[in-house]
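To whoever is covering the structure queue this week,

Two jobs came back overnight. Logging them here so there's a record in the thread.

Job A:
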Amino acid sequence: MSSRRDAVTMAYEALAGEDDGRSCRDIPESACREQPGNFLRHAAALGLNKAADGLSDPKLVLSWLMTHLGAPAALVGLLVPIREAGSLLPQLFTAARIRGMPRRKWAWAGAALGQGAGAAIILAAALALEGLAAGLVILAGLAVLALSRSVASVAYKDVLGKTVDKGRRGTVTGLASSWSALVVIAFALTLIAFAEARAPVVLGALALAAAAWVLAGTVFAGLTEEAGAQEGGANALGDALANLRYLREDAQLARFVAARGLLTATALAPPWLVVLAAGEGGAALEGLGAMVLASALAALLSGYVWGRLADRSSRRVLIWTGLSGAAGMVLTLVFWALGLAGTLWAMPLALFAIMVAHQGVRLGRSTYLVDMVGTDLRAVYTAIANTVIGVLLLASGLFGAIAGLFGAAVTLGLFAAMALGGAIVAAGLKELGGRDDA
C-alpha cells in the first residue's frame, strides 16, 4: 500500500509540478493529504469525458452518421441545438437538488453513466435503423446525453474546488484536455487511414465513447470527497426569471446577450457543411476524417492565441470571431458555388476557419462576462445569460430545421448573416480595459 501511495505521489508531483505535496492554500489539510490521488482521478475521468465528447461530436460525427443513414436534413439541423440547449437549460431545474447533496461526486459519476447510456442508444439506432426512424432515435439518445451532461456541469466545479487546491485546478483540467485531444486526433487519423471502413470506425468510436463514460464515472466515484455544505441551493430557474429585469436595466448586458446569441451561429453551422458536401457526390461522407482532424487542430492551435487576445480586449475577440466565422461560412458557399464542395480539402479548410472562430467565441464570451461585473452580480448575470441563450438555441434549432427545407446553402447563408450581426452588435459593447489599455 505504501509503495502504491508513493507511486501516486510521484506521478502527481511530475504532472502537477508539485514539490511539496502537503502545501495547500484553500482546501483543508485532510483534503490536501488526498490531493495526489484525487488529482490523477480528475485527470483520468475528465480526460475520458472529453475524449468521449470528441468521439461522439454532434457537429461532425453524428451529423455524418445521420447523413450516412439517410435521416432528413432537418433532423441533422437539430443536433447542435439539442446538445447545447439540453446541456444548459436543465441546470436551472437541477442545480438546487445537486447543491443539496453533501458529496456531489455521485452526481457527476451518475451523469457520466447517463452519457454512456445516451451514446449506447445512438449506437443501437445506427446498428438497427435507417432514415427518419434512425434520426429520431439518435436525437432521443442525444437528449439523454445532453441532460446527463447538464448534471455533470453543475456538479464538477464544486467537486474540483473541494478536492484540488486552487493552484492546481487549471493544470488538471489542461492535462485532461491535452491527452483527450490526442485521442480525438488519433480517431481522425484512423478515419483517414481506413477511409473505406468509415462506418465501422464511427460505430466503434461510439462504442468506445459509451465505454469511456462508464469508466469515467467509475474512476470519479473513487474520489475522496469530504461532505460539504448543503445550504445555498436556491432555485436557479426562479433566480434567473426573477433577475431578468437586469436585461432592461443594463443595456450592456442586453447587448452582450444579443451578441452571444447571434454568435451561436459558429456552433450551429458545422453540421450544414456536412449536409452541403454530402449533396455533392457524397464527399462529406468520404472526408469525415479530415473534418474531424480540422476541428481538433482548430481547438488545439487557436485557444492560446484567443486567450492572449482576450486578455487585451475580449470585446475585440467577439468582433473578430463574428467576422471570421462569417468569412468561414461564406468561404464554404464559395467552394459550393465553384463546384469544389465535392473535393476532400475544401470542406475541412472551411470548417477549420469556422471552428477557430467558435473557439474564440467561447473564450471571448466567458472572459467578457467575468470582466463585465463584480462578484456580487456575476452569478446572477451568468444565470440570465444561460437562460436566454438556452431558449435561443432551441429556437435557432427550429429555425435551422425550417431553413433546411430550402437547402443547406440557404441555411449557411443565414448563419453567416447571424455571425456578421453578432460582430456588429459586439462592436457596440463597452471596452472593459485590457492589458494594453491606458
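Job B:
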Amino acid sequence: MRQVERTVRDLLALAEIQIDGPNPWDIQVKNEQFYGRILSDAALGLGESYMDGWWDCERLDTLVHKLLRSGIEEKVQPIKMILPILATKLFNRQKVSRAYQVAEKHYDTSNDMFKLMLDQRMVYTCAYWKDAKDLEAAQEAKLDLVCRKIGLQKGMRVLDIGCGWGSFAKFAAQNYGASVVGVSVSREQTELGRKMCEGLDVDLRLEDYRSINEVFDRVVSIGMFEAVGPKNFRTYMKVVDRCLSADGIFLLHTIGTHSTATATDPWSEKYIFPNGALPTPLQLTKSIDGIFQIEDWHNLNTNYSKTLLAWMDRFDKNWEKIEALGFDQRFYRMWRYFLLTAAGTFTARRSHLWQVVYSKKGIEGGYDAIR
C-alpha cells in the first residue's frame, strides 16, 4: 500500500470511516488518484473528485457529519484552504459590483428545476418541522412562524430583503393582509415571483438592498444574509435601521457558524455560492452595536438537515424531468454533493440556522419569544 493511501486511510479511521467498507457512510474509491487529491486539496479536492466520479458514498450526509465531529480537517490544512479565509478578510467580495454574481451562478440556474425540487410555494430556505409531517407543511409553518415572531398585522408594510420567488411576500399578503416590498438580485426569481404574486399587494423588485430608502413597519430577511459578507454587515444593519420605523421589528433568518475559520468553504464558493460567507455570533452582535437590541435568538439547526434531505428526495424522484431540462450527470453529482454534505454540516453542528429578532429601543413590556 502506498504511503499516500495509507495516510488517507489512517486519517479517515479517526472518524470511523473505511475505504471500500460495508457501512453506508464509507467511501467507495473508483480512482486511485483520489488519495493524493484529498491530501493536496482537502475539502475542495473531496468535492471535485466526487463530481468527477472518483468515489461514491451512499450517505454523504453521515460521512460529513462523522468527518466534522472527528476534527479530521484540522490535520489536513493545505495552503489552498487558507486562501478563502484571507480573501474574506482582505477583500470586499460582496460589493455592489459583485452583488449579482450569486444569482447568475446559483439562483438563476433554472426556475423549472427548482420547481421540481422545492415545495409548491418554492421556499428555498430552512423549513420548520416542529409539528410538520412533510415539506409542504414544514415550509408553511416556517412562514407563519416568521409572521408571528414579527407580530404581523393587517395593513402593515413589510420589506423582505432577499425575497427569492416571493414565497414569504405571498404568504404574508394572503394570510395576514400585509403590504410587502421584496428585493432580490435574481432576475429569474423576480420575474417568476411577480407572476406567482399577481393580484396581491406585493411589489417584487430587482434591486440590491443597499439602494432601498423607504420606511416599513417590519423588515424580514430570510436566507439572504449569507451573501452579504462581513465587510458589509454593519452597512446592512444601517440599511435596515434606515428602513425600519421607530417601533418596528426586524427578523433575520440566516445560516451561521461558530468560527470565522469555517465561514467560507472553497468547494461551495467555486460551484454553488460565489462570494458567500457565513456570519458568526460575534460578527452579528458587533454589526448591531448602537443600532438594534436583540429580542430573541432561536437556533433551528437540525431543521435544516431535514429540509435538505427532503429537497434531495424530491430531486431524486424528479431527476428524469430535471435531466430533460438539459442537466447532465456531473450536475447531478454536484447537486447531490451540495445538498447532502450541507445536511451533514448541520447535524454535526458546524452550521446553524438562526432566527434573530431585533428592535430599535427594546419592545415595551418585553418580547414574547415564539416557537
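Note for Job B: Residues 78-89 have pLDDT under 50 and may be disordered.

Please reply-all if you pick these up so we don't duplicate work.
Q.
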